[in-house]
From TrEMBL:
This is Phytanoyl-CoA dioxygenase PhyH. GO terms for molecular function: dioxygenase activity. It comes from Nostoc cycadae WK-1. Keywords: Dioxygenase, Oxidoreductase. It comes from the Bacteria. Gene3D superfamilies: q2cbj1_9rhob like domain (2.60.120.620).
Amino acid sequence: MNLLLPKIQKRIFKKIYQIPFVKQQNDIAYQMAINKHKTNLPIISKDDLELVEKINHEGVAITSLDNLGITSNPQLLQTAQALTSQIQLEINSDDNQYVIHASSQQIMAYPTIFLWGLEQRLLNIIEHYIGLPVAYHGTYFRRDLANQLEKGSRLWHLDPEDRKVLKIIVYVNDVSENHGPFQYIPLSLTSNIVQYLKYNYGYIPNETMQKVISPDNYKSCIGSSGTVIFAGTGSIFHRGKAPENSDRFTIFFDYTSRRKKELFYINNSLPYQALLQLSKNLSVQQKQSLFWQEYLE
């Protein structure tokens, strides 16, 4: 199955899925899948359940690598900090550039970063939030440049790839209000804005958003190096605020369900051969999340 859906094709399917009869049938099928999978959800701790409940209620849950206590956490942060010096601005860079991503080669040189997103405890937490088997779409190591550009992910948006999308964001450096925090609008307010703007997909400039809701309702995720943010980015308006004082370094880990219908994801952040190389020591469950295209439901 070819999952590389062009943007135009995605939009066509999105519109088709909004036709009342089609939407009703999809809603029924989705709820049936959720109900069927409930008995297969993994057992997680009370603390992890509280994380899930907070994401469901607010749209975001903030913790830290220290609080999560996953064995590979110290190695993740050390590796990420080592990589920051290698994410260089190109000499002939575009004046409109606002973010630099680590290359596939750089991520492969530091496999700890990519593999952290497949930690079984994280997959279990995400499965409870999504309510279905998890697809792991990879990791993106970002250097967001300290400039005044407001474009792309610095504009307000919802992630349209699935009914429930979850991103884990790890701050590599300290992030204050002036260092480009991840910002979001709480779940309850987002639903009202969607209805008011008749929003379906795309980016919303901050000027437009301020006409709909007071900036006092914006929530900035402030934190020191090692802060971890679980964000249901398919359900809350969010953006990366433009850094002012210095560049912001973050790692994003992306997840959806494996449902064939209504899944509008492109591909993994790494090529297939790289995934095969990284998967040698993974468990069956981890491999199913990694090679999710082979386990669509």
